[in-house]
Amino acid sequence: MEAVGALGDGELEIIAGDRPGLLSRVARTLAENGISVQSAKINTLGSRAEDMFLLDGESLKDTRKVVKLEADLIHQLEA
Length: 79
Prior knowledge:
With 79 residues, this protein is α+β, with helices and mostly antiparallel strands. It has 2 helices and 4 strands. The chain has helices spanning 22-32, 63-78, and strands spanning 3-4, 11-17, 36-45, 48-56. Strands 1-2-4-3 form a 4-stranded antiparallel β-sheet, covered by helices on one side. A hairpin with a 2-residue loop joins strand 3 and strand 4 (48-56).
């Protein structure tokens, strides 16, 4: 994984090596943390995924929950 962008403003950018199941892992992690995807732009450039999500959910207003979500996403992307 190369980057997980800011979550507090409701935008998430993920830049990572593409692999089967990547989008599924991200979506599942968001759902498990009570986050809804309002919009997504999914880009695959060769072996590189550059995905942008517009998110919504009460968890985004709680700093501790945002930190947990970021850690959960990083864990999924490194797995």
